[in-house]
């Protein structure tokens, strides 16, 4: 199986085209996740055997931020991808994940909630301690 990037972006932005160009140039498969697919398991979205399409949900989850999910990447290729994205001035994607044995059954909505919580925790952990008045 080839390396794959699953990409969700609720906005129509030129970043998507730029990212696709970079990924294609690196030989990485690229799949845009639409809002209708956010209730599907990551394993299904990545084309992993044994993950069938789930029935459609009536209410589409609200995911207001972009997410990039990597599948079948080595750590070296992740570094290469991020370096290339910086060089091509694609901009940051705060919410990133790798599909693992632990999260492949999660929906994109579940992953989003987990990533958002982790991102907020890390953002607050980097703030310097407040000085006593």
Count of spatially separate domains: 1
Q: What integer is the average pLDDT? A: 91
Q: How many β-strand stretches?
A: 4
* DSSP helical segment count: 4
**In which range does the helix fraction lie?**
25-40%
Taking pLDDT < 50 over at least 5 consecutive residues as the criterion, the unreliable ranges are none
As a percent range, the share of strand residues is: 5-15%
Secondary-structure content class: alpha/beta
Question: Quick one: overall form?
Answer: globular
Radius of gyration from the CA trace? 16 Å
**In this structure, how is the largest beta sheet organized?**
4 strands, mixed
Strand order of the largest sheet: 2-1-3-4
Q: How far is the N terminus from the C terminus?
A: 58 Å
- List the secondary-structure elements in sequence, H or E: EHEHEHEH
Characterization of this structure:
The chain is of the alpha/beta class and 133 residues long. The protein has one domain (4-125). 35% of the residues lie in helices and 14% in strands. It contains 4 helices and 4 strands, in the order βαβαβαβα. Strands 2-1-3-4 form a 4-stranded mixed beta sheet, with helices on both faces. The chain is globular, with a radius of gyration of 16 Å.
Which helices and strands, and how do they pair?
Elements: E1 4-8, H1 14-25, E2 29-32, H2 42-45, E3 67-71, H3 75-87, E4 95-98, H4 108-125
Parallel strand pairs: 1-2, 3-4
Antiparallel strand pairs: 1-3
Quick recap of the structure?
The protein has 133 residues and is of the alpha/beta class.
Brief descriptors of the model:
133 residues; 4 strands; globular; 4-stranded mixed sheet; alpha/beta
């Amino acid at each position: 199986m080839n390396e794959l990037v699953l990409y969700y972006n609720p906005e129509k932005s030129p970043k998507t085209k730029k990212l696709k160009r970079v990924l294609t140039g690196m030989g990485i498969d690229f799949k845009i996740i639409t809002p209708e697919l956010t209730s599907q398991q990551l394993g299904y979205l990545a084309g992993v055997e044994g993950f069938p399409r789930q029935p459609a949900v009536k209410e589409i989850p609200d995911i207001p931020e972009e997410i990039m999910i990597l599948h079948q990447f080595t750590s070296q290729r992740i570094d290469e991808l991020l370096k290339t994205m910086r060089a091509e001035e694609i901009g940051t994607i705060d919410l990133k994940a790798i599909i693992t044995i632990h999260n492949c059954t999660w929906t994109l909505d579940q992953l989003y909630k987990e990533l958002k919580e982790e991102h907020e925790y890390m953002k607050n952990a980097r703030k310097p301690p407040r000085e006593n008045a």
